[in-house]
Amino acid sequence: METPGAAAPWLVLGLVLGALLPLLAALAGAALRRRGAPGGSPGDAPPAGAPVDDLPGFLEAPPGSAPAAPVRGAGWAPLGGAPAPAAPLPPRVRRERTGSREVLVGMALAAVLLVGAAAAVATGRAPDGAAAEGTRPGPTTPSAGAGARSVTAELVFEGLVLERHPVGVTVAVPRVRLTAGGGRATADVELVTFNCLRGDAPPDPAAAGCTRSVTEHAQLSGPELDVRLEGGVLRVSGAFPTWRRPTGSPPVATGRVYDLAVTAAPRDGRAGDGPEAAAGLLELGDERARTRDDGASTISYAG
């Protein structure tokens, strides 16, 4: 919805066009009427088909009289009477330049200039409105900000299905490190993958005889990472793009992005000071994986 300040330039443009169009129509009509007025000049010659008076010739040579003898040496005598004088051509009518074309061109240029000026005024304020809309603060993400306790978690999960194939599945064993506090949060994810000739993910793919495959890495922080710390429960979520680290080569993006959600809390449900055993859950779509029971997962609070 436009604000009154943003709509004012367009109102000015509409008023200018509304006042300009009737004026242009009136000027164009006056120019056309002036151009269509008769422009003949007085004293024009009669049309070419007017009758010629032959009375003088009749008096000089009446019917039955002998023609006058030709003068010797004057050349060939005419065989007939003297030809009638040719009718004079009508004088060319000089059209007076009324200037209607120049008037119309001038009006068109003036209209273009006025419309352009009004459009410039209307659009001159558009970037301000767009910038104001673009800088509108978005929804804040609850996080472990200033004044909240900082927390660090090291989590090792059981295997979960990362990708299904016509024969077997690709299973990942996730390792997640979470740090949150002081208004900052970061999540580092490592996905150790295995190819298993079965339809589900075993808790320990290596012990189940699955074949080790590549390891994918991901890191997310800042606004892209949603962090929530409520009581002693830490929950982070986000879209994690992954990459691989070939031996002796720079990281290579895999082109895959995983929507992960991780929840971690002390195993006994009480948040104390210093590291303690942690329990957690990792969610990837419909797949779920819990932390292993070997004590490898820890969580630590401070502040």
Could you name the key traits of this structure?
alpha+beta; 4 helices; 24% helix; 11 strands; eleven-stranded antiparallel sheet; 303 residues
Short précis:
This protein is α+β, with helices and mostly antiparallel strands and 303 residues long.
3D structure, described in words:
With 303 residues, the chain is of the alpha+beta class. 24% of the residues lie in helices and 33% in strands. The protein has helices spanning 4-35, 55-60, 100-124, 126-134, and strands spanning 150-156, 160-164, 169-181, 184-196, 211-221, 226-230, 233-244, 252-266, 274-284, 287-290, 298-302. Strands 1, 2, 3, 4, 5, 6, 7, 8, 9, 10 and 11 form an 11-stranded antiparallel β-sheet that branches. Helix 1 (4-35) packs antiparallel against helix 3. 17% of the residues are buried.
Uncertain ranges: 39-43, 73-80, 125-147
Strand percentage = 25-35%
Number of domains: 2
Q: DSSP helix count?
A: 4
Radius of gyration: 51 Å
Global outline: elongated
- Total strand segments: 11
Q: In percent, how helical is the residue content?
A: 10-25%
- The secondary-structure class comes to alpha+beta
Along the chain, the helix and strand elements come as: HHHHEEEEEEEEEEE
Mean pLDDT across all residues, rounded?
74
Q: Cα distance, first to last residue?
A: 46 Å
Largest sheet: 11 strands, antiparallel
Keywords: Membrane, Transmembrane, Transmembrane helix
Region (Disordered): 35-72, 127-147, 266-303
Biased composition (Basic and acidic residues): 285-295
Transmembrane segments: 6-32, 103-122
